[in-house]
Every structure is written in C-alpha cells, then in structure tokens.
C-alpha cells in the first residue's frame, strides 16, 4: 500500500506575493484547446436561458399584484439560483482550463506547492529535507496523472507527489536541482502525516540522474 498526504494538510488561500516569500516559480498548467472550446460553448449555451429567466424574474418581482404573481416570482428565482450555481461551476472550470497554474515557493526549510488560479490556490507546505527520489515522470495516457503530461515526481515520507506540467527532462532536472539545494526545515516544522492508499496505475519514468532513484 502506498501512502498519501493527509487531506487536512491541504489548504485554500489567496495567492498574493508576500515580502517573506522566497523564490516563486510559476508554471502554467497543460492547456487543452479542445477541452477549452467544449466548456466555453457549453457555458455560452447555458448562459442564454439564464439571462432570459433573470429578466422574467425581475419582471415578476416588479408586479406582485396577486398570489399567482408571487408564486411565479419565487419559482423563477429558485430556478435561476439552481441554474446559476451550475453555471458558476462551469465558468470556474473554464477559468481553470484557461488560466490555471502551479506555483512553487522555495525558501529555506520550506517548499510551498500551490495549484489554482492567479489569485486563488489549493496547496500544501513541505519540508525540503524529506523530499526524496526526484525524477522525471511520463504518465500512462489513461492514468490519473495523464492531464499533467511529463512532470517532476518525488516521494515525501513515502507518499508520491507530482509538480509541473508538460516539463521536458532538462526543465525537470533544473527544478530538481533547486529543490535539492534547499536546506531542511528547522526543528518545529509542523509534521505532515501520511495515510495508506491503494497503489496507482503504473507509469513510465525517467530518472533525472543516476543513483537518485530508490532501489
């Protein structure tokens, strides 16, 4: 059984540069023109009825002359709220496909990996001293990591993690060298627990340098 980082260690936040941050490395996520086009068309098609119902709901609330008018206004508003929730989710996916990125913040004793939009992120903080087995990885086409394309993979206390999207071997090697150059965290670093998880699908990997892979 392989391990994975405990979900409680991941966090949401606002991704704004701070004075205390170390080196920031911003890497755009792999873009899929076909997926972007499909989601964009779906969003536009779903927006048309939302605009129409919004106008109807506004008109209904403007003429509450009877109980029937009130029921009609409530029905239009309820439908619009449900439809709008799905529409916002769809536009969120579109924004992630178009502007999604992965940000690494490298500092003494700390590595932040942040995945998300330019201002919002979902990420985790790691101790550089516990990062091992850095290697360039090419996932199988139908695996859960296929959306990344070639990337940098590593182990953190036995838990497999990935970073980067569409990285060539030379780019992955440079990023791995920066991670190796960071000193480990000082005492008091908050421990990041791991939990067992079923082994993922096999993947094709290329070691960045001889001797870096664990036997």
Task: Describe what you observe in this structure.
By secondary structure, this protein is an alpha+beta fold. The protein folds into two domains: 2-29 and 102-186 and 193-207; 34-98. 35% of the residues lie in helices and 29% in strands. It has three helices and eleven strands; from the N terminus they run βββααββββββαββ. The protein has helices spanning 33-62, 67-99, 169-181, and strands at 2-5, 11-14, 23-28, 101-107, 110-116, 120-126, 131-138, 151-156, 159-163, 194-197, 204-207. The strands form three sheets. The chain has a five-stranded antiparallel beta sheet with strand order 2-6-5-4-3, with no helix packed on it. α1 runs antiparallel to α2 (67-99). The chain is elongated and about 75 Å long. The model is unreliable at 196-215 (pLDDT under 50).
């Amino acid at each position: 059984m392989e391990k994975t980082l405990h979900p409680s260690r991941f966090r949401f936040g606002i991704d704004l540069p701070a004075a205390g941050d170390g080196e920031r490395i911003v890497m755009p996520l792999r873009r899929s023109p076909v997926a972007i086009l499909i989601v964009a068309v779906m969003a536009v098609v779903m927006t048309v009825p939302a605009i129409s119902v919004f106008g109807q709901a506004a008109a209904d609330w403007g003429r509450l002359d009877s109980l029937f008018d009130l029921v009609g206004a409530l029905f239009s508003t309820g439908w619009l709220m449900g439809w709008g929730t799905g529409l916002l989710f769809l536009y969120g996916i579109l924004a992630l496909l178009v502007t999604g990125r992965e940000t690494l913040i490298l500092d003494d004793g700390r590595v932040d990996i942040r995945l998300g939009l330019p201002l919002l992120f979902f990420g985790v903080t790691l101790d550089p001293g516990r990062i091992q087995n850095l290697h360039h990885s090419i996932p199988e086409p139908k695996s859960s990591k296929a959306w990344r394309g070639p990337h940098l993979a590593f182990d953190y206390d036995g838990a497999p993690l990935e970073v980067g999207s569409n990285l060539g071997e030379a780019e992955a090697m440079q990023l791995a060298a920066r991670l190796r150059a960071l000193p480990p965290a000082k005492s008091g670093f908050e421990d990041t627990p791991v939990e067992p998880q079923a082994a993922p699908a096999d993947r094709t990997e290329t070691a960045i340098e001889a001797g870096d892979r664990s036997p």
